[in-house]
Design brief:
Layout lengths: L31 E11 L4 E9 L2 E9 L7 E9 L5 E4 L3 E6 L2 E6 L8 E12 L19 E6 L14 E4 L1 E4 L6 E5 L7 E5 L2 E13 L2 E8 L2 E11 L15 E6 L2 E4 L6 E7 L2 E8 L2 E6 L9 E10 L2 E8 L2 E7 L10 E3 L13 E5 L1 H7 L7 H15 L6 H13 L2 H14 L5 H8 L6
Antiparallel strand pairs: 1-2, 1-8, 2-3, 3-4, 4-5, 5-6, 6-7, 7-8, 9-10, 9-26, 11-12, 12-13, 13-14, 14-15, 15-16, 16-17, 17-18, 19-20, 19-26, 20-21, 21-22, 22-23, 23-24, 24-25
Helix pairs in contact: 2-4
Length: about 450
């Protein structure tokens, strides 16, 4: 019998203390509404920003505070309102903002996001208007029902064509472990079909318990139908999931616990793409106005980050391109679940990540991304794909007539003769000194 807990949970503990339900302004209205932004000066010489929000009819704030690790970056935390004796308190499992009039107490525990900040009194300095929708950063609730979707790969049946593009189905959410080595996806019950979990070991039927609201989060127990003593608890920051018949998450899955053990999910405040592939996890986030790529798990570059990515869309899906000197990392995610084969690829000689199809992935709303992210001109990414292949065939000489015929056929299918003009146009349009310009200069058509 398969066990419900296939992951080796990291040692640790989490106290689940019952607390009043989340404060709510009632149902109805837009899923997400941004209010005024405020600046607070705090004891210790640091400042925090507080943006007022309405998330699915519930009051919340997005707090920006120093990471304690990088002076140029701020950590962002979404905190829902909770009941309190006086004032208004917003809290997650590790962070709280408790205001009374023009003063507030702010604190946070150490996490993958920041160092700890002990309770500090903060005083309101100024209040500004709501940030425009096209502001240079994404909402802290990127992974919501209206702002993105999660997908899991359908395993091909016996006798299936191994070269056929993979197909995906939409699921409720995915916890990619912070080390990038494991994942847990959840699909809600639909009609008479039970809910099930998806792991690297395959699907498993589960029962999902009712919400247990506590300070700053919501918790759902998932159990093995064959053994109620085997259980995990999904811990969500902010409002938590919608009703079970709505297959989308409404807030980030922050951790999964079992007894006194806990695994943290990859930080999702600003993630716009997340995937589990053969050699580990990949996340792409939008931070301080630029796209940031991180390899996790067993990747040769696990723990490193690459900045300055560009976003584009094509018939294949949403694409994120990163240019690092002479090399390029490219990730294409289907917007509909029909993924092109080899959707993750890196040009040689970098070979940081071999071509692979994700087992599960998350993609933020591409329409939203197209309005806010740094853009790569339409057609450039597919042209680079073709250029790379054309350069390969141009350098391949064979005395075998059959192989030469195959090369000529591929050359025509790729329209390699037309690539030269497309390449020159992209090179001329690229900004001088940009990573894209440098990459194109170092990867010109080899046959010219």
């Amino acid at each position: 019998m398969k066990t419900l807990i296939p992951m080796a949970l990291a040692a640790g503990s989490l106290a689940l203390v019952p607390a009043p339900a989340l404060a709510s302004d009632g149902p109805g209205g837009p899923d997400f509404e941004r209010g005024e932004m405020q600046l607070y000066a705090c004891e210790g010489g640091f400042k925090i920003t507080v943006t007022r929000l309405q998330v699915l009819g519930q009051s919340a704030v997005q707090v920006g505070f120093p990471t304690g690790r990088n002076d140029n970056l701020a950590a962002l935390q979404l905190l829902p309102a909770t009941q309190t004796g006086s004032g208004v308190r917003y809290a997650s499992d590790i962070t709280s903002f408790h205001e009374k009039g023009d003063t507030a107490i702010f604190r946070t525990e150490a996490s993958a996001k920041s160092e700890a900040i002990p309770p500090a009194t903060c005083t309101l300095e100024r209040t500004g208007p709501p940030a425009p929708a096209s502001a240079g950063k994404l909402d802290a609730v990127t992974q919501t029902a209206s702002n993105g979707s999660y997908w899991a790969k359908v395993k091909p049946g016996y006798g299936a064509d191994p070269s056929a593009p993979p197909t995906y189905f939409e699921i409720e959410n995915v916890c990619l472990t912070i080390d990038g080595k494991r994942f847990l996806g959840i699909h809600p019950p639909v009609g008479d079909e039970p809910a099930f979990a998806i792991t690297e070991d395959g699907p498993l039927a589960i029962n999902i318990g009712d919400v247990d609201a506590s300070a700053g989060g919501r918790h759902y127990k998932i159990t093995n139908p064959e053994n109620a003593d085997e259980f995990l608890t999904m811990n969500f920051i902010a409002p938590g999931m919608r009703e079970a018949d709505q297959p989308s998450a409404t807030a980030g899955l922050s951790s999964i616990t079992s007894d006194d053990r806990q695994i943290d999910c990859a930080d999702n405040d600003q993630i716009v793409y997340m995937a589990m592939i053969d050699s580990g996890g990949v996340t792409i986030s939008f931070e301080a106005g630029e796209l940031v790529l991180r390899f996790l798990g067993n990747s040769p570059d696990a723990g490193e980050e690459f900045r300055g990515g560009l976003f584009s869309r094509s018939a294949a899906g949403a694409t994120f391109d990163f240019f690092v000197d002479e090399d390029r990392a490219s990730f294409t995610a289907s917007e509909t679940g029909q993924m092109p084969s080899g959707s993750v690829g890196v040009d040689t000689p970098m070979e940081r990540q071999p071509p692979s199809d994700p087992v599960v992935y998350f993609l933020a709303n591409p329409d939203m991304l197209a309005e806010r992210l740094p853009i790569l001109a339409a057609g450039v990414s597919p042209m680079i794909d073709r250029l790379s292949q054309c350069n390969h065939f141009a350098g391949e000489a064979s005395e075998d007539a059959e192989r030469n015929q195959q090369i000529m056929q591929a050359w025509e299918e790729l329209a390699c003769d037309a690539v030269s003009a497309e390449y020159k146009s992209a090179l001329a349009a690229a900004v001088n000194g940009s990573p894209l310009k440098f990459y194109l200069q170092k990867n010109s058509p080899a046959w010219e």
